[in-house]
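From the pipeline queue, job 12 of 40. The input is one protein chain; the requested action is below.

Action: predict structure.
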Amino acid sequence: MTTAAVVGIGDISGNHLHAIVDHPSIDLVAVCDVVPERAEAAATEWGVPGFTDVDAMLREVRPDVVHLTLPHYLHAPVAAAALKAGSHVLTEKPVAESYGAGAELARVARESGRTLGVCFQNRYNNSSQALRRLVDERTYGSVVSARASVWWHRDEAYYASSPWRATWREAGGGVLINQTIHTIDLLCWLLGAPEEVSGVAANLTHGDIAEVEDTATVTMRHPGGVNSVYFATNCHAENAPVEIELVFESATVRLQDGQLLAATPDGDVQVIASDLVPEGERSYWGASHARLIADFYAHLSSEQPFWIDADAALVSLGVLRDTYVASGLVPAQER
């Protein structure tokens, strides 16, 4: 059995905890949170020791894998500590709160000889996998262009519940890094790491509740000259379905609301793939955490490294860095 611990008992930790205990080859051995009440409640619920200090947990339990579901600014330092202690690490996105911190963590991971994985679980969705196959197999010819959009809602209560989300120092940004980095990651994974990035980000309506941006537009030029246009906001009245559209030579393929649809010039529309439909308040997170986690553990005993590592995660962080710097939101030397 491979032993695992979860550090950070917040909203997303449940996805990791359930995936761990449901996996036949993983043994949950500890939980950790700096808030004693959270640590105690999780320890009781999951029947494992609870800690409020991650260094103590690493010394006493020595888990094979540490899952990080922490605020952004803690990802890099806690991941580095776990790697240096000999544990593999699977962290929630982003890999760090800035490109510079992520690049340093990538160096630490290489030197440690341990595996560092990042949770971009939407790559495992049925629709995403099917869209990638269409790109790779050139089913409808080459990709001509692409667009994506995220229209979500975040209000004062959201930031008040976790104040770190509202600050540049602790969150590293707003709608781009917190709500919609998954969509940027998918665009870059489908089309290749961008060779050019132009972006504008601003805090248009949340100035009285957050420092960070609430709206952004980004254009990217990918290998082969393919252009993509991306729009994101958390000023909408609700969390609308994320949309990604790729225009191929002989069809337009749209990923929306868990379905992948292909429309050809003759008017034919075909359903290519459908995702599992999660339920509950956080349904927009998707249902592929368990797939990613199982794959991460499978790669620990494989000759092939886990494919969503720090370097892969730095691609989307690079897009954010370029957009934030161009928008005058952060100094270039701090990213």
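Job complete. The chain has twelve helices and 14 strands.
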